[in-house]
Amino acid sequence: MAYELHYWPGIQGRGEFVRLALEAAGAPYVDVARGDEDEGAGLPAMLHYLEDASVARPPFACPFLVDGRKVIGQTAAILLYLGPRLKLAPAGEADRLWLHQVQLTLADLVAEVHELHHPIASSLYYEDQKKEALRRSEDFRRTRLPKFLGWCEAVLQRNAGNAQREVPRLVGARLTYADLSLFQVVDGLLYALPKATRRTLRKTPLVAALHEGVPRQRRLAAYLASERRIPFNTQGIFRHYPELDA
Amino acid sequence: MAYELHYWPGIQGRGEFVRLALEAAGAPYVDVARGDEDEGAGLPAMLHYLEDASVARPPFACPFLVDGRKVIGQTAAILLYLGPRLKLAPAGEADRLWLHQVQLTLADLVAEVHELHHPIASSLYYEDQKKEALRRSEDFRRTRLPKFLGWCEAVLQRNAGNAQREVPRLVGARLTYADLSLFQVVDGLLYALPKATRRTLRKTPLVAALHEGVPRQRRLAAYLASERRIPFNTQGIFRHYPELDA
């Protein structure tokens, strides 16, 4: 049975981290909220899980995955669940937990990227918190972005065998969901903050090599060239407001 | 062998979520950074894992747990690991994943509580971002706090059997680490934002009952009355600045 991915249509957002894993693995899935309401899909099908009191274990927010009777929310938890099933996680509890740790740290970075343009409230427009966003982005470019990507670089440096690999891996020798997520984070940052991100990537060459190499995977390349890949835009998490970059 | 917990001394912070689990289970553990440098503990012992290039799998930040050769960062990942070992998690993959989802959602709430007093940058003092904090806290009190605690209330309502229990549980019939964490979040919120939190708790009676009942567990009660429990203060995540409450 196909997995059901539930996420806002029209943006990549946090749903994209799950989508990349499903696409790279060639797993059958339905992107429910982008489907047709007349066929039982669309937004109402997604909102059912978030709003209907009959759902025993309601996700707090999307994305969430429905696999048979299981409803799994929280991006990192979804990938923890899918990783072994899609062969995008190593064997063994210790390695899987380390992979999950890396993913949770990337999730923290993604949360900070969202706060860049919404430092006061998600419920307000960017224009209503632009002054605060200018202050916040300055600190992000100077301290947080180098710290996060610097940590990813250290993880890549210390993963044995990367020196011999054309495309470095975060955990173990094979592609994992965290590699896909780091590709996505860097891709989003290059869209949102091209100047600051390029400057940081010059100091994190393994992160840059991963970002360049990961999309060459055959299935991923096909996905990225397809209409299923929603372009970055200023509704998503990674937003390009030139005034926030430098 | 005793678990090693590594966290900043002097504040509860995110380390407290791990500490509560270890204490409630009566597990042997060493609070490393609060120990004596002359005996190989203290801050240098913690900073080794964060800063030394010889650490193969460096945590991004504390808290982290050291169990033999394993080094596990990210609060929710630590609890995912400890849960079954401390008998603070249900049996079965689906139930454990749901418990982890609940924990990750509480972690999101904790992150937003931190942003309340640091909406611009962690590297700046509160006083240097107070104007922005006033704006952010207004939205938090009005929309985010009711949304998060309302979701916890729904989770408690829908967990079968809670109507018959004196102290409701988030997942299953027995105490889990998420119950301990929700107790801690509410306790911290009552310290930081007493007015807004009391108002919200009147609409979430099961959350209030959990917060009242959980600390009656024998080992937890002993811990909370001991000197090991660091009092809340304005260095931690939950900070009482009266101007942010209403």
From TrEMBL, chains A, B:
Per its UniProt record, what InterPro entries does this chain match?
Glutathione-S-Trfase_C-like, Glutathione-S-Trfase_C_sf, Glutathione_S-Trfase_N, GST_C, GST_superfamily, Thioredoxin-like_sf
Q: Where is the GST N-terminal domain?
A: 1-90
* PROSITE patterns xrefs: GST_CTER (PS50405), GST_NTER (PS50404)
Q: Supply the source organism for this entry.
A: Ramlibacter montanisoli
* Keyword field contains Cell cycle: no
Name the PANTHER family for this protein.
GLUTATHIONE S-TRANSFERASE
* Name of the protein this chain belongs to: Glutathione S-transferase
Pfam families linked to this entry:
GST_C_3 (PF14497)
Keywords (alphabetical) are: Transferase
User: Which one of the record's GO molecular function terms can you name?
Assistant: glutathione transferase activity
Query: Is-annotated flag, keyword Transferase?
Result: yes
Please name the GO terms of the biological process aspect recorded for this protein, alphabetically. glutathione metabolic process
In what residue span(s) does the GST C-terminal domain sit? 92-232
